[in-house]
Amino acid sequence: MSKKEKSTDLWVYDLLKEANISLDPQGSSIKEIDDALKTASKRGTGKVGYPEYVGVVKDFVIVIEDKKSMSYHENRTDEGILSEDISSICDYAVNGALFYGKHLIKNTGYTKVIAIGVSGNEKKHRISPLFINERQDYYELTEIETFISFNEDNIYEYYTKEILKENTNFEKETKEILKDAALLHEDLRNYGSIQDKDKPLIVSGILLALREIEYGSFSIDSLTGDKNYTDGEKIYDAIKNNLKRANVSPEVKRDKLLNQFSVIKDTTKINQVEPTLKKTPNKHYTEFLYKSIFQSIRFHQNGEDYLGRFYGEFMSYSGGDGQSLGIILTPRHITELFCDLLDLKPDDKVMDPCCGTAGFLIAAMHDMLQKTDDDFEKNNIRKNQLFGIEDQSYMFTIATTNMILRGDGKSNLENQDFLKQNTAKLQLKGCTVGMMNPPYSQGSKDNPNLYEISFTEHLLESLVEGARVAVIVPQSTMTGKTKYEKETKANILKNHTLEGVITLNKNTFYGVGTNPCIAIFTAGIPHHTDKVCKFINFEDDGYEVAKHIGLIETPSAKDKKQHLLDVWFDRIDAETKFCVETTIEADDEWLHSFYYFNDEIPTDEDFRNTIADYITFEVNMITHGRGYLFGLEEDDEDLFDEKSSLAAEDGEDYETE
To answer: CA angle, 171 as apex, 168 and 172 as ends, to 5°?
Structure first.
């Protein structure tokens, strides 16, 4: 560890510690690796040579070389290949890491090495991983920001996706789920002529009914197409039993849900035997869901999660005819990001006043349950710490079902209009966290209370002092397009604190055409004029659109999320192109693009290129008769042309000589 690299070594150590990776500095506690390094001199002397860090995660050797200056990150040949001469492997991070990686492959029994070259510091840096196989072939991988992909929990997934370029089991399951969701949509349309709004109600109801099989109160074989006691009535009765078993109360709430599920027994077409199927569509749908979902659950460690994933994909699915259910689900990676940004604790009380299908509440429930081993606390989380409000009755039904399918937590869901609720009364619930994805594009001059910023203010007023709040809204919400929105922004700052705004990937709600952002607040504490807020550009979040599938996670997503959280929680500094920290005014546009400035110091090469570009431009303008742009008269232009001609002639003679 040379003195000049010491600060970089320590920063790399912090990155490893944060990723929960234990590597040895300047040697190895693994005898086989340490013996191999005794002949790993970069200068080829056959003497000892040690990388900055080395170790083993699962069956992968991880080796890291770092340099303080980014100028010594990598060195390449004229053909663009990493140089492997002595000077390059001694002086450059990536070249040195490659050398050590190959040496360890050659001199140990390990067959997979990830060699990483690091240069710079926590604010401005490059981290470049390579994969080296048993034949000493190497592959350059996408640059990263953290080491999170290489810990024990993630390294096999990274290897599968980034190195083998294959789908993980999760992705394979997702493709199967999408296929099943598509088939079910088609069958609902073809055999039942079911309206889009009723599709999720039928699926939700049948999923609840199927839960009664284990209690012996429902059987698929009982669906015989009987005209007196129809298949729909049998499914409906099973739903009623399951809602009682799930302890859905009060009774008026249970009656509201059953009223929505009555479409299953009241729709004549799906209760009559269909000639092609030779059974009722209701029985067909029930068999399909049982075979595709309930039987699959037995082969999954977390059957509840598999069931919930199908439910989510079905709700968000858009059929080939371009028709969708009109339900805009908040993507799972965003609901989980909310939990991380708000740093949920097991004793938090969480409110989502526009809960839709309950995505935020489910994410919050699972996050908090994972943070405690106490059964009493877990039961309390499910029963007393999750609060949801949903205006639309059928969405309320879907949310309640979703919560039951995901392991309870439905106790405090209400079918109400959030904006008509008294904020002082809502405060009495004692909620310490607020999460919301409000209805988009419903506000107008005639209905200003429906602007997204109005929902945001109403939520802030509904929580206890000090509550942490995150909302996902269109970026235009943070600019304040109308006078009303600007006044609301100013009023929010009088009573609450803006912590920051994160600009998101424009495809987060793929197919909807909304450019979203996440705004984070602290409720009940007025915004101080000296308060420094964070404005982050997280458009490159590691998610991209895949044909016929939609938004998918790439191998870099975990790494990019970890980097975001590190910056948000002040664990590291970041360049202004990623994060700007500044005080604000109410009439500012609360977005990264508004506050961004380029604080990168130009290199000598940048300066020379800029001067050269300017001189080229000036010469071009003057030779085309536009010297007046630079204060030249016509005679000056003629003189310039004459000198340019002589210079060219001199240059030609010089070249000839």
So the answer is: 85
